[in-house]
Every structure is written in C-alpha cells, then in structure tokens.
Amino acid sequence: MKPSSPVPPPPLNTLRQQLRRARRQLSASQQRHAAFGLARHLRHALLWQGARRIAFYHAVDGEIDPGPALRLAWQLGKACYLPVLHPIKENQMVFVRVWPGSRLVYNRWGIAEPKPALKHSISPGTLDLVLMPLVGFDEAGHRIGMGKGFYDRTFAFRRSQHRRPALVGLAHECQKVAGGITPSAWDVALDALATPRRYKALASHR
Ligand SMILES: Nc1ncnc2c1ncn2[C@@H]1O[C@H](COP(=O)(O)OP(=O)(O)O)[C@@H](O)[C@H]1O
Ligand SMILES: [Mg+2]
After folding, report:
1. Which residue(s) pair with 114 in the sheet?
2. What is the mean pLDDT of residues 125-140?
3. Which of 12, 151, 152, 188 best tests ligand 1's pocket when mutated (most atoms within 8 Å of CB)?
4. Which fold is adopted by the domain 12-76+124-201?
5. Where are the domains of the chain?
6. Which end of the chain is more exposed for a tag (fewer CB within 10 A), N or C?
C-alpha cells in the first residue's frame, strides 16, 4: 500500500471556526473548573509573581475566563487593567484600570469595557504582564487570535524589543493546534502559555 500523502492544514479561517466551536461547546462546569485551574497554575509563575500591572480580558465566545486570576490579583494588591479599543488608532487597544465593582459598558463587538475609559488609560508598554485570550496555540508559542490582529498591532513593538510587557496566552487544551501554526510576519509570539492543566514558559522568546 502506498503511504498516504500528508493532509494539508485547513485554511486559517476554517481553523478559527473549528477552534471557536470547540471552546463554545465546553459546559458551564467545565468552564468554571478551567478558570480555577488556570489561576492555580498562573499564581506559581515567575512572570505573574513579579508583575505589578497586569492586563486581563472579559471572556466571550467560550474563551477561558481569567476572572478567578483577576480576583486573586486584586487580593495581592496588583494593579489590574482591561483592554479598551483605541478611539482613533484603528484596531489597537489601550488599557484601563479596573477595581472590584468597576462599571463596564459594551463596545461595538459586544465586549464589556471599563467606563469612563480613556482619561484613565495607560499605554501598552507600561504593563508588566498581558494575559491574552487565544483562539489557537501551538507548543512553540505561536498564536491564532480572533482575526482582527488587535494584539498583534498593539504589541507590535515587542517583535523588535525585548522589553515589557510579557505576553502570556490563555487557552483551553482543546485549542491546541497539533500540527503547529505557521506565523505571519506581523504575528507577535507568546512568552508563555497557560491552560487549566499547565503553565509553559517559552524561553526561546525572551
Ligand atoms: N502590526 C500590524 N500592523 C498592521 N496590520 C496588522 C498588524 N498586525 C496585524 N495586522 C493585520 O491584522 C489582520 C489580522 O491579523 P491576524 O494575525 O490574522 O489576526 P489574529 O492575530 O487576531 O489571529 C491581518 O490582516 C494583518 O495584516
Ligand atoms: Mg496574529
């Protein structure tokens, strides 16, 4: 029998759809366990322990919920931020500090953002650690996002400069792309990965 030829990887948008469907199918209890598992692994990481200013996100579309990690960070006295779409620079984000009970409003993507925003926003380069939601990841730290390039644009300076913030991708294990991800020139690589099961530092990037 002839060996079968390797199956070509699906186009990126097809892969995005498959990965997003997989995470949306997780039950509420799986999501809850995942969120607490994630916080347990994160709290042991050096990047977390050394960070004073940390960016989180508001989970949508089955994304792993950084909520328990956010509450832990507040308890530890860390300054916590959420991304807000930049009003002028297209598809870029700024970061706004949030406290327990901060008021959020929904932006045009249906994602909750802190309000009032820009007066209290800080520039991305002053964060120590950014927790980024992933659609897909591989073991080398390549990521697939929602397809708008928000994080790639906002942290483009990290491609040429080895300075803060550290970028840590958060995902469920079902978002792993076993065959690996071929990065594009504009993609910003991750410094570490965190899932409900593990934390993986990617020393090659820092
Ligand atoms: N630094 C950047 N400057 C300008 N455009 C960018 C930059 N980073 C990404 N983009 C654009 O954003 C779009 C989406 O990027 P992509 O990497 O596919 O999305 P995601 O990272 O969300 O998966 C691409 O068309 C890309 O050209
Ligand atoms: Mg990208």
Report:
1. 104
2. 97
3. 152
4. Rossmann fold (3.40.50)
5. 12-76+124-201
6. N
